[in-house]
């Protein structure tokens, strides 16, 4: 399990997703919620994906989107090496 806290920006977005966010998260939606640049949003999303908090949906390019990992996906996370 991850022991490192998330950044305040990331916490705001995660809370928004947990509070009934409609649809999937994109880089531009993340940037709007977190009030940051799309470059920062992409870096934050990459970190959250690598930590297993967000999951990338199928598809790519301009339609790349993300969602929160399910409890089962979180439970299946391999232990850190």
Overview of this protein structure:
The chain is 46% helix and 7% strand. It is mostly helical and 81 residues long. The chain has one domain: Winged helix-like DNA-binding domain superfamily/Winged helix DNA-binding domain (Arc Repressor Mutant, subunit A, Orthogonal Bundle). A two-stranded antiparallel ribbon has the order 1-2. Helix 2 crosses helix 3 (38-50). The longest helix is centred in the middle third of the chain and has 13 residues, at 38-50. The termini are close together. The model has no long low-confidence stretch (mean pLDDT 89).
Topology of this structure?
Elements: H1 8-18, H2 27-34, H3 38-50, E1 54-56, E2 66-68, H4 71-75
Helix pairs in contact: 2-3
Helix segment count?
4
CATH architecture classification name: Orthogonal Bundle
How much β-strand is present in the residues? 5-15%
Q: Which geometry do the CA atoms define?
A: globular
Let me know the number of strands: 2
CATH topology, which one? Answer: Arc Repressor Mutant, subunit A
Helix content: 40-55%
**N-to-C SSE series?**
HHHEEH
Mean pLDDT level: 89
Strand order in space, largest sheet:
1-2
Largest sheet: 2 strands, antiparallel
Poorly predicted sequence stretches spanning 5 or more consecutive residues: none
Classified by CATH, the class is Mainly Alpha
């Amino acid at each position: 399990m991850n022991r490192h806290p998330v950044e305040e920006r990331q916490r705001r977005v995660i809370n928004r997703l947990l509070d009934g966010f409609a649809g999937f998260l994109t880089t531009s939606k993340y940037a709007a919620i977190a009030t940051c640049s799309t470059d920062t949003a992409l870096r934050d999303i990459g970190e959250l994906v690598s930590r297993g908090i967000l999951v990338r949906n199928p598809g790519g390019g301009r339609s790349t989107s993300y969602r929160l990992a399910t409890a089962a996906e979180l439970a299946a996370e391999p232990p850190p090496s």
